[in-house]
Design brief:
Number of strands: 9
Mean pLDDT: 90
Bound molecules: S-adenosylmethionine
Structural class: alpha/beta
Helix content: 25-40%
Strand content: 5-15%
CATH architecture of one domain: 3-Layer(aba) Sandwich
Number of helices: 12
């Protein structure tokens, strides 16, 4: 295989958040040489965990040349740009409620494309929610891929589930991997899945998906409102009496609000006909990957976020483990804030495994 990617492999992480993707890239052997995010808290969390201070700014206005200058880089110093323009504009929630007035749906994709044009890396990795592939017939994803093609990049693009790559969480994301200057001579492929659910697929060559049990069972048990004195962010939310009564009655290991007697149903759930809100107040299953970790991942009212057997929502540390952050990666002590950055991150191991494959297939670090 020809070496498309240059061996030095320096990366700029645009929309870097707290640094999930950056950490995955580092663990895959890359060097993060620049990062940008608009959120001041994200820009504080990032350098507590990674050896770089992001530029705190709006990528609609921070130009590629400013990023290069800020970090003392020249264009050819950068091999790789990673970008995760925020998903909110394409989430199903926003789609049903409509976007706020003046919110330009493709503004951040366009900003990302401009920054790529200015920095001109050899390789670009783009991550987004699956909604970008379906909203308005997929025109936003098409626009992205078409513009990349016009700029001289060939791309491979697919919706992947992080659980199929060893992450203990079902999390589907659009991944586009683009390489400049191959002129279609090199067929780009997505990494084949390495893991599968043994219950549904009998594919002997794959490992079984990593489960909730393997991921969090070793953490010290906690009562609601209690925190562990050693493990950062292992702190359980307090629940109201009503919520606690619901939680206690949800069957262990995969039960949900639908298993509750009607007496315990919340008024809003009584109004739901033909199902709906299936997962809220649900417990995780011990022997499956977790559901998608969101920015409200420790709130039982927001999804299947109750511990499989303890009577509480999961802690930010448990959520961070489902996102494959190491325990030494720290988040704000305030739970809602920690949830936000954990839920918005790209799973560390997902990026690490994807990038390792791309490096092995399309060029080496050596
Ligand atoms: C999906 S999160 C990225 C997560 C990150 N890649 C990680 O793995 O931790 C999207 C990020 O885009 C940032 N963002 C939103 N609008 C922005 C803008 N106009 N300029 C720069 N960053 C922006 C948000 O603050 C958020 O941290």
């Amino acid at each position: 295989m020809s070496k498309i990617i240059s061996p030095c492999y320096n990366v700029i992480d645009l929309f870097c958040g707290c640094g999930g993707a950056s950490l995955g890239l580092e663990l895959a052997g890359c060097r993060i040489v620049g990062a940008v995010d608009i959120d001041s808290t994200a820009c504080k969390i990032y350098p507590e965990n990674l050896d770089l201070k992001p530029i705190c700014g709006d990528l609609k206005h921070v130009k590629g040349s400013e990023i290069l200058k800020h970090y003392g880089l020249k264009k050819h110093d950068v091999d790789f740009v990673v970008g995760c323009p925020p998903c909110q504009s394409f989430s199903s929630l926003r789609r049903t409620r409509g976007l706020p007035k003046g919110d330009d749906k493709d503004a951040l994709i366009v900003a990302f494309l401009k920054r790529v044009r200015e920095i001109r890396p050899k390789v670009v990795l783009f991550e987004n929610v699956p909604g970008i592939a379906t909203l308005e017939g997929g025109r936003y994803l098409d626009l992205y891929l078409k513009r990349m093609h016009e700029m001289g990049y060939e791309s491979v693009c697919k919706i992947l589930d992080a659980a199929d790559y060893g992450v203990p969480q079902h999390r589907k994301r659009v991944i586009a991997f683009s390489v400049e200057g191959t002129n279609g001579k090199e067929e780009l492929l997505m990494p084949p899945p390495t893991h599968s659910d043994p219950k549904f697929v009998d594919e002997g060559d794959k490992l079984p998906c990593v489960t909730v049990r393997e991921t969090i069972a070793d953490l010290p048990p906690l009562e609601p409102g209690e925190r562990d004195s050693v493990i950062p962010n292992h702190k359980a939310r307090k629940h109201t009496q009503k919520v606690l009564e619901i939680i206690k009655n949800v069957p262990k290991d995969g039960g949900s609000r639908k298993d509750l007697s009607r007496r315990l149903w919340l008024r809003c759930h009584r109004k739901l006909r033909n199902g709906g809100a299936e997962n809220v107040y649900g417990r995780m299953w011990w022997n499956q990957p977790s559901p998608t970790i969101t920015s409200r991942c420790t709130c039982p009212s927001s999804g299947r976020f109750i511990h499989p057997e303890q009577d509480r929502g999961i802690t930010p540390r448990e959520a961070a483990r489902f996102q494959t952050f190491p325990d030494h990666f720290v988040f704000p002590t305030e739970t809602a804030s920690a949830d936000r950055y954990i839920g918005n991150a790209v799973p560390v191991l997902f990026i690490q495994n994807l990038v390792r494959y791309f490096v092995e297939e399309y060029g080496h670090l050596s």
